[in-house]
Amino acid sequence: xxxxxxxxxxxxxxxxxxxxxxxxxxxxxxxxxxxxxxxxxxxxxxxxxxxxxxxxxxxxxxxxxxxxxxxxxxxxxxxxxxxxxxxxxxxxxxxxxxxxxxxxxxxxxxxxxxxxxxxxxxxxxxxxxxxxxxxxxxxxxxxxxxxxxxxxxxxxxxxxxxxxxxxxxxxxxxxxxxxxxxxxxxxxxxxxxxxxxxxxxxxxxxxxxxxxxxxxxxxxxxxxxxxxxxxxxxxxxxxxxxxxxxxxxxxxxxxxxxxxxxxxxxxxxxxxxxxxxxxxxxxxxxxxxxxxxxxxxxxxxxxxxxxxxxxxxxxxxxxxxxxxxxxxxxxxxxxxxxxxxxxxxxxxxxxxxxxxx
Length: 357
Fold this sequence. Notes:
Strand content: under 5%
Pfam families: 7tm_1
Protein name: G-protein coupled receptors family 1 profile domain-containing protein
Family: Belongs to the G-protein coupled receptor 1 family.
Strand order of the largest sheet: 1-2
Transmembrane segments: 26-49, 61-85, 97-122, 143-163, 198-216, 257-278, 298-317
Subcellular location: Membrane
């Protein structure tokens, strides 16, 4: 079977394209590039800092995988931004990439990132609510196995998106791409979209929200019990300054953990949920509309922000991370100073040799 002709919708979409031109320009040429740059920079810093053993090995395995997944998503977001802003021309390679490669791989890494966050939440839930079984569950072997399972499930649910689009010929004999309506207009495809969104976004978002609520409730209950049965946190000369400082530090760390979990739950729900409804709306819509385009733009930017800001959300309240980050920058500065001094000494030696020569 040959490559079909693209649907000729230009005349009917002229008014629509004009009405959404400013929206696309602001969203995909100003806001989105900023999110991508910040996100890639933050996740690269994340990987550098996670090379230091300030977290236990299992947590570092999860967080490294999360950073790699988020960087991959943001790199694929570059192609999405170029496509949605009409900043890339037609060619054989771009048509094949946008038709068969972009969406399956982008969705795979999105699902992979979401599943890793879910695994991290389950890990924290067991550590707080079931500490007796935590040591047997919290192992490097278990973490690596969970990551492999997450990737396998992500690939499984994202693979059918290979059928979402197909290549086609334009009126001026250029190879382009369009929706594969012979597949996407079927009941089977619509069922797949609903099930995949439940499994890749809505379901994990619900699990993360519920588990974080349970963790926060448990931590607050433990805090009340400690206040009731433990000695007061007020300074006592008999306890000594060191003991008082340790108690204060422990309570501050617990409060920071509660705040961080609340922020993660809120950020995850706000940024991931709209993208789920976007996929379903995209599948069931009859035609493009200004309302759909506005919602599509907002959902894309929110989801992009989630993967760009994961770095800041997870480590904003971590004192250990800030220390490790400062250590990384200090090493960079020291190396730069060493290089400058080394080059300066070499230049001085070369100048002396030239004079003597």
